[in-house]
């Protein structure tokens, strides 16, 4: 089974981050080293304290929803979804149960903006 990944980009800094979707095998293997490597200090604290209190049994439970927590922390930090390896962002949103803010390339105009532009530039329609 392959795992899907979603790419995020910060609009101001241009930093990109990749987040896996689904079960997190790396958390089971490496424990608190994973969030430490990702510089996600709140998640690192959660994994460390949970692992210490439950003798790492909590890592099995956290592995099921760690990626969702990681995506939420990226969104909170201002990152925007750029794309996925497989499928589309809408499928990932349905899987995560989240609405992801999306990154639009600078040459692409959102449909609601394009609709407003067309509405204001076309000839006015007079009622008869």
Describe what you observe in this structure.
The chain has 128 residues and is mainly alpha-helical. It has one domain. The chain is 50% helix and 12% strand. The protein contains 6 helices and 3 strands, in the order ββααααβαα. Strands 2-1-3 form a 3-stranded antiparallel sheet, with helices on one face. β1 and β2 form a beta hairpin. α3 runs antiparallel to α4. The longest helix is centred in the middle third of the chain and has 20 residues. The radius of gyration is 20 Å and the shape is globular.
Question: How do the strands and helices of this protein lay out in sequence?
Answer:
Blueprint: E1 5-9, E2 16-20, H1 25-30, H2 33-37, H3 41-54, H4 57-76, E3 80-84, H5 89-96, H6 111-121
Précis, in short:
With 128 residues, the chain is mainly alpha-helical. The chain is built from six helices and three strands.
């Amino acid at each position: 089974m392959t795992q899907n990944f979603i790419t995020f980009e910060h609009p101001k800094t241009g930093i990109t981050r990749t987040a896996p979707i689904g079960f997190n095998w790396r958390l089971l293997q490496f424990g608190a080293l994973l969030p430490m490597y990702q510089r996600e200090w709140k998640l690192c604290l959660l994994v460390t304290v949970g692992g210490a209190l439950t003798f790492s049994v909590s890592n099995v439970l956290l592995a099921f929803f760690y990626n969702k927590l990681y995506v939420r922390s990226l969104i909170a930090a201002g990152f925007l979804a750029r794309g996925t390896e497989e499928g589309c962002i809408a499928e990932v949103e349905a899987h995560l149960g989240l609405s992801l803010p999306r990154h639009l390339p600078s040459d692409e105009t959102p449909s609601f903006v394009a609709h407003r532009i067309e509405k204001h530039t076309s000839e006015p329609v007079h009622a008869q």
